[in-house]
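Supplementary Note 3. Input sequence used for the single-chain structure prediction.
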Amino acid sequence: IRELISLAEKQGVNLRRVDRRKLDEISMTGVHNGVIAIAEPHPHYTVRERLEMLFEQRIDPFFILADELNYEQNLGAILRSAMGAGVHAVVVPTRRGKGLTPVVQRVAMGGAEEVPVIREGLSSALKVLRKEGIRIVGADMDGAPCWSVPMTGPLALVMGGEHKGLTSTLRKRCDAIASV
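The predicted structure, written as discrete structure tokens, is reproduced below.
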């Protein structure tokens, strides 16, 4: 806690000490480890807006599209791994699966703050990505070995649902399928 306080003070973050019961009261997940930060809401993007930002910075986009994530812990784990892998956005469908929740944020361990979650239909997102020349690779257990599938340059990695894997509709929209 002392190190965290020192870092916050160096960054000019306003600190306020409160009783642990107050933290229990305002915690959305029931887990706070003695610290809660109040921050601005996450920015909202569309796939097109995020692509334009990356193109302006001359960065090859790297997106993950994840279908039917029903367990918040799985989206949190994807965001945590995505942050480590340099992913620029995770796209989840507007109708199927979980979005950004306090549980997702806790499991993501900072990934939700670094990697934008875009709620957009996967078909429309794939259409935009393909039009912009982004290579689309599906991840499925019956694909080619991942080391044999080119995954450099602009890339979108498509992951299927937790129980179903890639649907035939998503599979048809991919340039290649890599095993995971």
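DSSP finds eight helices and six strands in the chain. The longest strand covers residues 135-144.
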